[in-house]
Amino acid sequence: MLRRHLWIVAVPALTIGVVPVRAETVTVTIEKMRFSPAEISARPGDTIEWINKDILAHTATVKGDWEVVIPPGKSGHLVLKATTPVDYYCRFHPNMKGRISIPAR
């Protein structure tokens, strides 16, 4: 008589996890007709918040793309979608300029 044995071997599942990157909020202060800091680093999905401490309204504008209006004494925000660096300015005061750099992954 021929006997056959069936062996069941338990193998732990191999899990390769990807740790999601948490979106962050990056703050830019507008004071004395300047974006401060003038250059920030942010990733797609991060929120950029501009806090306007001036008595005048300002914008954060990317020509042909987006614009955030920031009233005096208020804040405005945008969830970043760009995957390449972005230069922005205030439409009301074009000498005010800022840059959003995208860090390498």
From TrEMBL:
Membrane-crossing residue ranges in chain numbering: none
Superkingdom to which the source organism belongs: Bacteria
Gene3D superfamilies, per database record: Cupredoxins - blue copper proteins
Pfam family, any one: Cupredoxin_1
Residue ranges constituting the EfeO-type cupredoxin-like domain according to the UniProt record: 23-100
Descriptive protein name: Plastocyanin
Organism per entry: Rhizobium tibeticum
